[in-house]
Every structure is written in structure tokens, then in C-alpha cells.
């Protein structure tokens, strides 16, 4: 009978001993690994306690960490007594490599710890799937598994810690070089709107960008236009052999609208066939030909739509990480933030939105991509005479304003003006017509918060027939 092969839990005692020995020889080594390594990353429980004691001594200051001082602090530890006490610590120091790369050791131990955690989650998934009662449906088990994976991803990232100013300057120069490679125009992802790109420098990596407004203002249309433009630029630049594209593949979480509805909007914009015709299939022969040809042309766009309803911030993060790895997405769009489910129960909706906005900012930094989140505003805007939204209209939404790098509001005066149309016999009717003609296709993008630059009002042309925004210079009559 063939002997069964058992797999061992991943760990490396030699690396653990080498790292501890390196710290005993050079106490400054603990500074170089403290941002990467925690005590629980060690497999051996004794090594966990030794590292924890070393950290405590170093943080207190004034005491050199040596085999003697460490033994004095831990001489009652049963595990240390069992392996030889002071002799074991002295051997760790003597066996330390002459030129240890402690950061490499720390990364190895961190990776092994993550692998052990993944094994544990895998076992939990298997056991739960076998034993779970009927009241715990598979979808709930999937969500719990995703949350567990998300926690591992969060706890396994400690950042690189402080960097010196020379390194910070080098990264700034790299960003400027990327902008120069794009013809000196923008350093981020192009939205397709000249004034907005000029103000923001494009959508910047690691930024959380809030696009807010009341229903009917065109938030989804603006976000869809941005997504399409960025994806189209990417395809064009790749075809032309451009080294640094001003576009990018886009991941769009459409929590309110089905994927086919969103794609129908894009087709309406690009074919100039009105949405009601697309919904009802009432095409002329020439329109149908245009529709089919444009659909074939757009099918290669790197625009990925996830229309899962009730998705949580943990699920958004997990799927965005996967798409970053598989498709190298350059931006994430969420429509809209109030429809995102919290990852855990909290006391009230304000706290839920706070958790979600903070999670989106963390995701933007982790993936180093802009995250654009659409947001509804409170109804208080509609009760004011001046219906232009301001930052205070976001206060009911927790920390959105605080977490965001950019907050912009979409405002169309024509939307409200249409609701106040006077009777034709009213002397004010002619004034209403005159004003309506002036503002009918105008939209204001009010950039009210901009962490990296000035705030301003940007005017765009809005064609409600095709739910399409354009630069005013490109407007059509």
C-alpha cells in the first residue's frame, strides 16, 4: 500500500532564528522590520514571545537588547527554560548571519503567516460547507469567507513606513515624467472633459473622488461618460503604441442599474439613437446598421461592469483586487455609495456610510488607483431657493467629505426650471422661455473640495436625448 504523503504547515524556523539573532546582534534591525512584522507572524510560540519582548524593550528605550537582558526579562518563561534559557539566546546571537537582510527575512515570515491563515480559512470553508445548518445559506458563507480574506489582506499590509525626502522627490519626478510622456498634459487618467482634466490633472492614483447630486442631475451619465472615455483612450493609445496611456481599463460597480441598461446608455451616446428606441427596438434600417456596427466596435473596450445588487464594501474590495491583478484596471467607479452594504452591523446609517467611505479610501490607496464614488444628497437641497449643492449637504453622510480628496457636484438649473414652468398666459412665461433657452443644455460641475488644488465651477454641455455630457466647445445644436 502506497504511503500517504502528509503536507506540513508552511513555516521556517531557521529564518525565525536568523531574524531574532540579527536583532540581538544589532538592535536597530528591529526598526527596519517593525512596519512589516508582528509577533503573530512567527510560527513558534516562543519566538512570538521573544520578538514581543524585544519590541517592548526597544520601544521603552534606554536598554540594550542582548541575550543577558532578554533572558532577565523572560527567565520565568517555561518555553525558554525548556530549550536552554540563556544558552539558547546566546546561540541565536552567535549563529546570526554576518550581513543579514532582515527586511527580506521579515517578508518571508509575513508571507508564511499569510499562507497559514489562508489554510485555516480554507479548512473553515470546507467544515462550514459540510456542517452548516439550513438557516445559514451558502451566500452567507461566501460573504463570511470574503470578509475573512479581506481581514487577511488588511492585516498583512503595514506599509513601508516613513521614507526619506529624497525618495519622495524621486517619486514626484517619476510622476512628472509620466505626465511629460503624455505630452505634458495630465498625469492621471483622462475623463474626456478638458477643463475638468486641466483642474485635476486627470483622475489621480489613490484619490477618492465623490460625484454627488440630487436625482436627475446626471451623476450616472457623467460617470458613464468618464468610464467610456478612459477605456476608449486606453484602446487608442495601445493601438498607436503610446508608452504611457492617458486612459485605463475601468471597473464599474453599477448597484442601481443593470449592466445591459448601462451599456444601452453608452450605445445611445455613441450612436445618437435615443434610449426609447433602443429599449423598444424601434430602429430604422440605417439606425439598426449603425447600432450593430458601433456595438461591434465597442465590444473590445476594457470596461468591466459588475451589477451585483447589495454588494458589501468587502466584496467590492475583493473583486477590485482580483480585477487589478487580472485586467490591470486603472480606476474603480461605484454607483452609488448609499447602495453599498456595510461589512458588519453598526448602530446607524451614518456609521455605515462612514465605514464604507473609509473603506473606499483605503481601497484607492491599496490599489493605487482613483476610486470614483457617486453619492446622493439630502432632500434639504430641494427645499432651498438656491438649489446649488454645497459641502454641508454631505454632512448627513458621515465622513464622506472628510475622506474624499475631491468632491464635485452635478447641477443642472434646467431640471428645476422645468418644474416651475408658468402658464402661457402668465406675464412671466416669456422670461421663463428666455431663461430656459439659455440654460436648457447647460450643466455645472461644482468642484467644492480639491485636496491638491483650487476649487471652481466647470460648465459642460448636456444632451438629455442621449444622456451625454460634452465640453461646451463640442456642443451641438
Explain the overall architecture.
By secondary structure, the protein is of the alpha/beta class. It has two domains: 155 residues, DNAb Helicase, Chain A (Orthogonal Bundle); 289 residues, P-loop containing nucleotide triphosphate hydrolases (Rossmann fold), CATH 3.40.50. It contains 19 helices and nine strands. Strands 3-2-4-5-1-6-7-8-9 form a nine-stranded mixed beta sheet, sandwiched between helices. Helix 16 links the parallel strand 4 and strand 5. Helix 1 packs antiparallel against helix 7. The protein is elongated and about 100 Å long. The chain starts with 12 loop residues before the first helix and ends in a 6-residue tail after the last strand.
Structure characteristics:
single chain; 477 residues; alpha/beta; DNAb Helicase, Chain A; Rossmann fold; 19 helices
Q: Say what oligomer this is.
A: single chain
Q: What is the β-strand count?
A: 9
CATH topology group of the largest domain: Rossmann fold
Q: What form results from the Cα inertia axes?
A: elongated
Short summary:
The chain has 477 residues and is of the alpha/beta class.
Topology record:
Blueprint: H1 13-25, H2 29-33, H3 45-60, H4 67-74, H5 78-83, H6 86-94, H7 102-131, H8 138-155, H9 165-181, H10 194-200, E1 208-213, H11 219-239, E2 250-254, H12 259-271, H13 275-280, H14 285-298, E3 303-306, H15 313-327, E4 331-335, H16 349-367, E5 371-376, H17 400-403, E6 406-411, H18 413-418, H19 429-439, E7 442-450, E8 456-463, E9 468-471
Amino acid at each position: 500500500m502506497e504511503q500517504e504523503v502528509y503536507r506540513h504547515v508552511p513555516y521556517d524556523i531557521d529564518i525565525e532564528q536568523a531574524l531574532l539573532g540579527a536583532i540581538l546582534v544589532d538592535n536597530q534591525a528591529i526598526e527596519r522590520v517593525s512596519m512589516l512584522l508582528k509577533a503573530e507572524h512567527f510560527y513558534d510560540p516562543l519566538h512570538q514571545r521573544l520578538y514581543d519582548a524585544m519590541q517592548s524593550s526597544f520601544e521603552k528605550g534606554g536598554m540594550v537588547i542582548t541575550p543577558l537582558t532578554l533572558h532577565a526579562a523572560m527567565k520565568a518563561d517555561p518555553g525558554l527554560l525548556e530549550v536552554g534559557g540563556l544558552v539558547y539566546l546566546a546561540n541565536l546571537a552567535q549563529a546570526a548571519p554576518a550581513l543579514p537582510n532582515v527586511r527580506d527575512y521579515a517578508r518571508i515570515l509575513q508571507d508564511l503567516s499569510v499562507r497559514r491563515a489562508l489554510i485555516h480559512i480554507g479548512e473553515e470553508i470546507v467544515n462550514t460547507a459540510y456542517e452548516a445548518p439550513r438557516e445559514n445559506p451558502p451566500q452567507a458563507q461566501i460573504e463570511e469567507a470574503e470578509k475573512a480574506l479581506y481581514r487577511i489582506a488588511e492585516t498583512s499590509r503595514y506599509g513601508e513606513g516613513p521614507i526619506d525626502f529624497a525618495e519622495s522627490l524621486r517619486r514626484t519626478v517619476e510622476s512628472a515624467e509620466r505626465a511629460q510622456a503624455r505630452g505634458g498634459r495630465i498625469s492621471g487618467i483622462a475623463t474626456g472633459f478638458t477643463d475638468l482634466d486641466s483642474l485635476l490633472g486627470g483622475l489621480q492614483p489613490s484619490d477618492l473622488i465623490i460625484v454627488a447630486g440630487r436625482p436627475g442631475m446626471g451623476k450616472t451619465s457623467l460617470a458613464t461618460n468618464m468610464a467610456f472615455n478612459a477605456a476608449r483612450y486606453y484602446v487608442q493609445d495601445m493601438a498607436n503604441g503610446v508608452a504611457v496611456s492617458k486612459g485605463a481599463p475601468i471597473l464599474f460597480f453599477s448597484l442601481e442599474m443593470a449592466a445591459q441598461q448601462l451599456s444601452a446608455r453608452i450605445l445611445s451616446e455613441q450612436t445618437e439613437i435615443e434610449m426609447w428606441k433602443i429599449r423598444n427596438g424601434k430602429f430604422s434600417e440605417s439606425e439598426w446598421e449603425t447600432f450593430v456596427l458601433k456595438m461591434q466596435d465597442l465590444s473590445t473596450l476594457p470596461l468591466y461592469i459588475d451589477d451585483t445588487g447589495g454588494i458589501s464594501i468587502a466584496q467590492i474590495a475583493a473583486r477590485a483586487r482580483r480585477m487589478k491583478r487580472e485586467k490591470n484596471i486603472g480606476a474603480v467607479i461605484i454607483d452609488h455609495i448609499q447602495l453599498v452594504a456595510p461589512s458588519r452591523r453598526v448602530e446607524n446609517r451614518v456609521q455605515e456610510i462612514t465605514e464604507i467611505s473609509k473603506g473606499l479610501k483605503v481601497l484607492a490607496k491599496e490599489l493605487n488607483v482613483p476610486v470614483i464614488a457617486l453619492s446622493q444628497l439630502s432632500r434639504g437641497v430641494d427645499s432651498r431657493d438656491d438649489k446649488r449643492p454645497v459641502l454641508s449637504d454631505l454632512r448627513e453622510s458621515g465622513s464622506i467629505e472628510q475622506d474624499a480628496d475631491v468632491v464635485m457636484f452635478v447641477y443642472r438649473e434646467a431640471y428645476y426650471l422645468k418644474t416651475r414652468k408658468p402658464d402661457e398666459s402668465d406675464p412671466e412665461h416669456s422670461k421663463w422661455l428666455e431663461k430656459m433657452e439659455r440654460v436648457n443644455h447647460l450643466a455645472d460641475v461644482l468642484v467644492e473640495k480639491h485636496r491638491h488644488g483650487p476649487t471652481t465651477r466647470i460648465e459642460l454641455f448636456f444632451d438629455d436625448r442621449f444622456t451625454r455630457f460634452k465640453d461646451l466647445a463640442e456642443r451641438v445644436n
